[in-house]
Amino acid sequence: MYPHVYPKDFWGTFVLLIVTQMDIRFYLKRPDAKQVTAIFARITYEAGQLKYYLPEKINPAYWNSATQRAVQSKRFPEYPEFNARIDTLEQTIRNTYRKYLNDNDNATPSPGTLKELLDTALGKKEAAGKQGFFEYFEDFKTRSADGQRISPKTKKVTVHNTNKGYGTTLKHLENFRKVYQRRIDFDSIDLEFYNDYIKYLTHTVKLSPNTIGDHIKRIKTVLQEAKEKGIKVNPAFESSYFTKPKEDTDSIYLTEAELKELEKLDLSGDKKLDQVRDLFLIGCYTGLRYSDYSVLQPEHIKDGFISIKQAKTGNPVVIPIHPTVKGILDKYNGKLPKAISNQKTNDYLKDLGEKVDALKTTVTKTYTKGGTKITRTFPKYKLMVSHTARRSFATNEYLAGTPSITIMAITGHKTEKAFLGYIKLTPDEHAKLLKLHWEKRAQQRESKLRKAQ
């Protein structure tokens, strides 16, 4: 008896018939939602049923439950691409199932196994041996915290202040992925991801543009390191469109006259406010960040100068001791007032400012929150924070005629453009500064004439 001879493609056709018995239907998680909602596939096959969420979302207004695709509407112009992605996802589900059958002698995967296979196929879970973006980011964060990460600019170990914030950035990314059921990996961080993520941080998390910019900068830093280590990364992150959002701030500074009023306050009955005031004044006359002027020790002070390595940059800086600073050092017998937390300092500074009449004048502040421009008026003292000291130093020195390059050597600004953006003089102050320069030139000319006579 001759063995039965099957056509060459018989078994492939047989497996295909099994796969076609798989029923895949798409549904919305919240069909009555007013905003976008997740889409899930209900997969029914021989081993049972699996409800599987897809990395896609849509506003129910643009969903056709009969076709299980987006409606063809001018209000949803991206419907062709969206439907193409749904088609691709359906084909991926079928191909993943077919591959399992081929690799396992036509044994049917359980719903749990099928879910794990789809997680890997769609990038929700990394295949064994491959380090994905989130794993890499977690390792990056750990190396940063442990002092093992090298800065590509300085070629030195990055300092603690430089590494702050990576944990928060990672949490936002994880929440974004979870909320929108979105695949995020080295190859998928493109301009579409960028635009959607900016919208998420703006409208859902309601962060300011500058805070969003910090998160984008950290993502770009992680991707740049991964690329330099040979990991294939989507090149979109280097695009001029993948930018760090930024918004000019209306941060205040205290004038010389306001600082003198603050210095003259009699705080002998409130030791805590007295110490906060004195430490703040040290910041105003040294230009140091709070992380530096709050940890100054006697060993940093010698021969009329303060020498310290800055916590944020690791760079050394030398600053002459201002008479006000010398008076505070004498008051504390060569030591410095005891520092408290930055947050507490900010709270006490507002209490201090309220005691100064000049700081009760109103200031208008414009900022963006949740994508909306907000303009509010505050008493000036309400806007006082520890960083106000550093900005006050830079602005007052500039107004006094100190060369920008000299101030920048202390503040650490790399370009004059960045420095001038930092101090943000008002039109009145620019006019007064110009008048001051004219007066100085006039005095110099008169001096030359007198000498010539």
Give the helix level as a range of percent: 40-55%
**Rg, alpha carbons:** 31 Å
Query: Residue-averaged pLDDT, rounded?
Result: 85
- Assign the CATH topology of the largest domain: hpI Integrase, Chain A
| Total helical elements | 17
Strand content is 5-15%
DSSP strand tally: 10
Counting structural domains, the number is: 3
Low-confidence stretches: 1-20
**Main β-sheet description:** 3 strands, antiparallel
Q: In words, what does this structure look like?
A:
This protein is of the alpha+beta class and 453 residues long. It has 3 domains: 10-121, no CATH class; 133-238; 256-426, hpI Integrase, Chain A (Orthogonal Bundle). The protein contains 17 helices and 10 strands. The longest helix is centred in the last third of the chain and has 26 residues, at 427-452. The radius of gyration is 31 Å and the shape is elongated.
Q: Which features would summarize this protein structure in a list?
A:
single chain, 453 residues, alpha+beta, hpI Integrase, Chain A, 3 domains, three-stranded antiparallel beta sheet, 17 helices, elongated, disordered N terminus
